[in-house]
Amino acid sequence: MNWLSNITPPGIKKMLRQLDDGNDNKLWTKCASCGEMVFHKDLEAAQHVCPACNHHMAINATQRLCGLFDDGNWDKIELPDVVADPLKFRDEKKYTDRLKEYRRKTGEKDALTIGAGKIDGVDTVIAVQNFAFMGGSMGMGLGDGILKAAQEAVFRKAPLVIFTASGGARMQEGILSLMQMPRTTIAVQMVKEAGLPYIVVLTHPTTGGVTASYAMLGDVHLAEPGALIGFAGPRVIEQTIREKLPEGFQRAEYLNEKGMVDMVVPRAEMKKTLSGLLRVFMRHGVKAAEMPDNVTPLPVMTAPDGEAAETGAEVSDKDALDKAAE
């Protein structure tokens, strides 16, 4: 045993112990990409983006929602209650014990947080996956959360925006976790049938069953710089095909070049970009100067009955298309 531990327990240990929940008591943070030491207050002001290399560090759902909604004001929408351990699963520890551990660490019920508020005056529902909660894995709790977010968007007649971050389906729930793929697809369809926009923001990493379902069904797909996006990881693909993959394969910039991602948006510009897109979709009269770069105004969205969706405007699809083409 260390002599320092013998003479000063437990004071020194408490001073040196790193907290489970991250950087709350740290003055400096080391960038995982470039190794630069960044003063924590400066990092918070930069929305946890490294000023030296532009590496986008992970942030929790509350930080993301407060940075997007006007004045940081939003209403939290509670997740539905689900069966905690339907398969009585156990590996190194009980699944119920894992859930308790991650709920204590994150303060959240599951790997999804839903908020409702305004983005530059546009009512919006945002669902954010938390990678810190069991790798953002998709289980029944998250599936029900996506359904809840979709229902809330339809009820409020508001757009739905989802920030994805996940390693895929939650193995502790077996086939029940895979069933969330069609369930979340139905949730997205509910939003689209209501004539409301659905925007996906892909953050690092987005893989597995999440990529194979609601993460690829958006009207527009945005991504943060450097985000890993795909179904299987690059190492698995290389081992399967026995070939070296191109540099940057499955990263946001590469997928943007190939057309899988519409825009790569830095975190500092995310609110402005979402605001411009939502105003176009909801027809809030955006000026050209407010439009994000490389975004073309879209024709009027119509509800299933052919009427303009919640705008009160009497514009036919043909008129809208002609106007958009001018």
Describe the structure.
The protein has 326 residues and is of the alpha/beta class. Helix content is 35%, strand content 15%. The protein starts with a helix and ends with a helix.
Structure at a glance:
The chain is of the alpha/beta class and 326 residues long.
Mean of pLDDT: 84
| CATH topology tier name of the largest domain | 2-enoyl-CoA Hydratase, Chain A, domain 1
CATH superfamily of the largest domain: 2-enoyl-CoA Hydratase, Chain A, domain 1
User: Which residue ranges are poorly predicted, with pLDDT under 50 across at least 5 consecutive positions?
Assistant: 15-23, 285-292, 294-326
CATH domain class of the largest domain: Alpha Beta
Give, in spatial order, the strands making up the sheet with the most strands: 3-4-5-6-7-8-9
Describe the structure using short key phrases:
326 residues; alpha/beta; 2-enoyl-CoA Hydratase, Chain A, domain 1; 2 domains; 7-stranded mixed β-sheet; two-stranded antiparallel sheet; disordered C terminus
Spell out the blueprint of helices and strands:
Blueprint: H1 3-7, H2 11-16, E1 28-30, E2 37-39, H3 40-45, H4 61-68, E3 74-77, H5 95-106, E4 112-119, E5 122-129, H6 140-156, E6 160-166, H7 174-178, H8 180-193, E7 198-206, H9 208-211, E8 220-223, H10 234-241, H11 252-257, E9 263-264, H12 270-282, H13 317-325
Parallel strand pairs: 5-6, 6-7, 7-8, 8-9
Antiparallel strand pairs: 1-2, 3-4, 4-5
Helix pairs in contact: 6-8
